[in-house]
Design brief:
Elements (H helix, E strand, L loop, with lengths): L1 E4 L9 E6 L6 E2 L4 E7 L3 E5 L4 E6 L6 E2 L4 E6 L1 H14 L21 H9 L16 H13 L12 H16 L2 E9 L1 H16 L6 H13 L7 E4 L2 E4 L5 E3 L1 E2 L5 E2 L2 E2 L7 H16 L13 E4 L20 E5 L3 E7 L2 E15 L5 H16 L6
Parallel strand pairs: 12-16, 16-17
Antiparallel strand pairs: 1-8, 2-4, 2-7, 3-6, 4-5, 6-8, 9-19, 10-11, 12-15, 13-14, 17-19, 18-19
Helix pairs in contact: 6-7, 6-8
């Protein structure tokens, strides 16, 4: 009987039994791989030092072992044949038939752990160059890293520009910093639709494109009276609530990203003034002519994501260091109940995403209630 031992000289300081490559009752030949060990550096196969049958497995998969540990035993000669027959009979199974020889691939003689890593990544051993005596996990990882850097077939690689990196860093910081909570209301746009139809030509003569966003800005100003903290900012020792309402408007720049020009001191502006500011800011944003002052000092933001088709987006990431952001969904005609009758109205979902450190639920709902009331009660002659 021959002991199967953990090598006394192994690469790495720790070893774990990764997988048994033979099971009890299997015939083995000299130099057949019996068991795979994994150290903190490489995978190591332990080979049979004598021919016979594997009759004992003393250490199961996953166990930590030290150099010199007996892993199992091989019984040689006729005793081995009798043992194999007895095991097959005791298990109620027939002795295995001789395997049909087949051509071996480059991966067949590798340790199971290496074979699995190759299979998981769609590689064959012949795909991976290596300089040592055997293929290692490090060789496979190096090949994967090389392929990751090389252009892949059917993939368009777009390197990050500075704007995309800044957007990513800013949004990730906001999510990590503020506990986001979103409330959803719906708004009837009938009143502002009628007002816009009645006044857009007059506004155009004054050089202003009267968009729904102008009404949103004006309604935000009105809603701040119901919950002033929405126009605030969190500090570790206090909350600052600002008198000036500086409203940023998220403006898409196509594939280039997003920028947020700011309508400063919106509480001092008429609807016409707001529309003029928006017209100028939008043009400057899309032609790349915004100055630093145009995007600084925001205390609140609006994301009119509905223009691209979404009904609701939540949470919309807060534009730090602000405490809240309004989201306006797609405007569409829907059946609603008014005075116990079903009518068709232009409706949209509106959301307020808040930093829960600064604003609580009752403030959020009070703000949205006032915002919606302002839109729905807009007088045509105003």
């Amino acid at each position: 009987m021959t002991d199967i031992l953990v090598p006394t000289e192994q690469e790495g300081t720790k070893a774990v039994v990764k997988a048994w490559l033979k099971k009890v009752g299997d015939a083995v030949k000299v130099d057949d791989p019996i068991v795979e060990l994994e150290t903190d550096k490489v995978a190591v196969e332990v080979a049979a030092t004598s021919a016979g049958v594997l009759t004992e497995i003393l250490v199961e998969d996953g166990a930590e072992v030290e150099p010199g540990t007996v892993l199992g035993r091989i019984t040689a000669g006729s005793a081995a044949e009798e043992t194999a027959k007895a095991m097959a009979q005791g298990a109620g199974i027939a002795a295995p038939k001789a395997a049909t020889p087949r051509a071996a691939s480059a991966s067949d003689q590798l340790p199971p752990g290496i074979r699995k890593m190759l299979a998981d990544n769609g590689l064959d051993a012949r795909d991976v160059p290596f300089g040592g005596a055997r293929l290692t996990r490090e060789d496979i990882q190096a090949e994967l890293d090389r392929r990751a850097k090389a252009p892949a077939v059917g993939v368009k690689r777009v390197p990050h520009d500075s704007m995309r990196k800044r957007i990513a860093e800013h949004l990730a910081h906001s999510v990590q910093t503020a506990p986001h909570v979103t409330a959803v209301f719906e708004a009837d746009f009938s009143a502002i639709t009628a007002h816009r139809a009645a006044h857009k030509d007059a506004f155009a003569k004054d050089g202003a494109n009267l968009t729904f966003t102008a009404y949103f800005v004006a309604a935000c100003v009105a809603a701040m009276s119901a919950a002033p903290a929405v126009n605030g900012r969190w500090y570790d020792d206090r909350i600052d609530i600002y008198d000036d309402i500086n409203i940023g408007i998220g403006t898409a720049l196509g594939e280039k990203g997003l920028i947020v020009p700011v309508i400063h001191r919106a509480q001092t502006l008429s609807l016409l003034d707001i529309a003029k500011r928006l017209t100028g800011m939008t043009e400057k944003a899309r032609t790349g002519k915004l100055s630093q002052d145009d995007v600084r000092g925001g205390t609140f933001s609006i994301s009119n994501h509905g223009v691209s088709g979404s009904l609701v987006a939540a949470p919309i990431i807060i534009n730090q260091p602000q405490s809240a952001i309004l989201g306006v969904g797609k405007l569409e005609k829907r059946a609603v109940v008014r005075d116990d009758a079903i009518v068709i109205r232009p409706m949209a979902y509106v959301t307020l995403t808040i930093d829960h450190r600064v604003i609580d639920a009752f403030q959020t709902n009070a703000w949205l209630t006032k915002f919606v009331e302002t839109l729905e009660n807009w007088a045509v002659g105003a």
